[in-house]
Design goal:
single chain, about 375 residues, alpha/beta, Rossmann fold, 6-stranded parallel beta sheet, 14 helices, 13 strands, globular
Length: about 375
């Protein structure tokens, strides 16, 4: 049988949630049915590049759209034309308009616009109008509209009908492991009686790790809290300077990008996501699968709450977050209810088959 040819278009392969979501789905479908390609910008992280190579993806780096918009368009158009794809699946939210225009001109049969983000920031009229135009272009050039959650869907599509593709994960991979907890905490010289606040994400304005430093600064007098931040980004140096200024640098561990981030959930006691704007981050699901107590910004999609007993969304007020952190019992149980994950459609073994069936049904 002829393989279905699909091109995924992402902003980059830099260890972000979109790449993780795409890998989770494609590693749980029958790849023998598909000839998968990825168009990406920026230098790819070694981890992501090797992951997709092992799944037999063809990977193609294209010029960065901000610095080289015309070259980005022409390179995308040329690649799509040469490879004659059955499906294009675009994962860049507003910026999907570039590959979608190319795909519509080339009459690619299935053109998927996938919204992975929500941006509720205040904007001036010019920015709002620009976004309005790009949203209209994305919708008009697509045959199918996807979103990671309700906020991301409403942001890009308004009242148009769309399909939610849940940021599902391999739940067993994230189950709590006491042995790994002890190994990692020993490696990092963290005592059993110390409470570890954890965060995973790019070091950017959006992810708002500055807020976590403010929290730790308020807790430093208690001498029992540590903060682990996993990820890299353009604010790395600024965050390091701020930690020194607050005199909390000895209580913070910046790991950078690591290959076994999933193991570090075991070392955390509380998982924190104070994002200023975002859709539905994969890390929010991973942390809950580890049985962690979680505090999330109320800027995130409410549908990410799986266990309401352990997970709360809060406004970005340091005092509120401090109160919740201090309420958490250090010895709480890390068991999860697998049935709830299945009901809320976050089990990748179930959800991946649905996407595989969708691809097949749309082409054959």
């Amino acid at each position: 049988m002829k393989k279905i040819k699909i091109c995924h278009v992402v902003s980059g392969l830099v260890g972000g949630g979109v790449e993780e979501m795409l890998y989770n789905y494609c590693s749980n479908i029958d790849m023998n049915k598909f000839d998968m390609h990825i168009l990406y910008q920026h230098n790819a992280s070694k981890k992501n590049y090797e992951q997709f190579k092992k799944l037999n993806f063809t990977l193609k780096e294209i010029p960065y759209k901000v610095k080289h918009p015309i070259k980005n368009f022409t390179t995308t158009y040329k690649y799509l034309k040469e490879n004659k794809f059955d499906i294009i699946h675009c994962h860049m939210t507003l910026m999907n308009f570039i590959p979608l225009i190319c795909a519509k001109i080339l009459k690619i049969k299935v053109r998927i616009c996938h919204s992975h983000n929500y941006d509720g920031r205040k904007k001036n009229f010019i920015v709002k109008f620009g976004e309005y135009i790009l949203k209209k272009v994305c919708i008009s050039c697509s045959t199918d509209l996807f979103a990671c959650g309700e906020k991301a869907g409403e942001y890009l599509y308004g009242k148009k009908k769309y399909t939610i593709i849940h940021n599902a994960i391999n739940i067993e991979k994230y189950e709590f492991d006491e042995i790994k907890r002890k190994e990692i905490r020993n490696k990092l010289n963290i005592n059993d009686n110390e409470i570890v606040l954890g965060n995973i994400g790019r070091l950017t304005e959006q992810k708002n790790q500055k807020f976590l430093l403010e929290i730790l600064n308020m807790l430093k007098g208690e001498n029992k809290y540590k903060l682990i931040i996993i990820g890299d980004g353009k604010l790395k140096n600024e965050l390091n300077k701020k930690a020194i200024e607050y005199e909390i640098n000895n209580d913070i561990i910046f790991t950078g990008i690591i290959s076994n981030a999933q193991d570090y959930y075991n070392s955390f006691d509380v998982f924190l996501l104070p994002s200023l704007w975002e859709g539905l981050p994969v890390t929010s699901i991973e942390a809950q699968a580890n049985g962690l107590n979680c505090l999330f910004s109320n800027n995130l999609d409410n549908s990410l709450i799986i266990d309401s007993k352990k997970t709360k969304t809060l406004k970005l007020d340091v005092g509120d977050w401090l109160d919740e952190i201090k309420k958490i019992d250090e010895n709480y149980q890390r068991k999860i209810n697998l049935k709830i994950f299945n009901e809320k459609k976050y089990n990748i073994k179930v959800e991946a088959k649905k996407l595989e069936e969708f691809y097949t049904r749309k082409v054959l």
